[in-house]
Fold this sequence. Notes:
- There is one protein chain.
- The chain is α+β, with helices and mostly antiparallel strands.
- Helices cover about 20% and strands about 45% of the residues.
- The chain has a five-stranded antiparallel β-sheet with strand order 1-2-3-4-5, with no helix packed on it.
- The chain is rod-shaped and about 100 Å long.
- The chain starts with a helix and ends with a strand.
- The relative contact order is 0.12.
Amino acid sequence: MIFLLLFVTQVFVILALIAGVLAAPQSNPNDITIVNQEEVNNIGVGGYHFSYEQSDGQKREETAELKNEGTENESLSVVGSFSFIAPDGHTYRYAISQKKTTLGDL
Length: 106
């Protein structure tokens, strides 16, 4: 009788441990956070710069420089890049470069 009671107790303890592990909160791969961020002169006057990196490996960087300030040829020169890690494990990077954006066109 004691052996049966010990066996039942052991089974109960093992099942309780398994239930505890299964009930623990699971991490969600969709919980993406920003791990690095930088902003410079983003006040809407002149040029600007920003960049960020996320916990999933996605990165973006953009810099704009005001050209011919105060003239009718005033424009922004914008360069930047965007990259991400695809489900296949490869990193893909796209670069942008727009040397002249007339501010009246915005």
